[in-house]
Amino acid sequence: MGGRTGATMEVRQGVADVKEAAMAAERSSAPAITVRATGGRRAELILAGDVRAEFLRELEKRLGAPPLSEADEWIVDMSEVTGIDLACAYALLQAAERRPETATLTVRGARHAVQRTLRHAGLDAVAVMEK
User: Could you tell me which residues come within 8 angstroms of residue 74 by beta carbon, excluding any fewer than 6 positions away?
Assistant: First the structure.
């Protein structure tokens, strides 16, 4: 299988994971939190729904466990997040600050209001924010 075909399959799987997370969030009042290893020392955290303090412990647990705890590169997909409170944004910041300086964190797809909350928490100082 060629590199391009493999990359295409990975993108399709990523899109499927985001859609699955969004549907799970719609079915329940709980936000969806999905973590997957994407190869090498890279991991993706996919969040969907309204990420509030009631789910802080679950978020912190996922942030501290493999594959995220072992990854050198994190991608946080927030394209299906409808809202995030400051406590959860701080949990993301704290997890990012515990990682080695050489590690990278990219937040993708966050809505304007979600980006604003992430900035208030200071996450923009340690993460690349992509639309």
Answer: 42, 43, 44, 45, 68, 96, 99, 103, 104, 105, 106
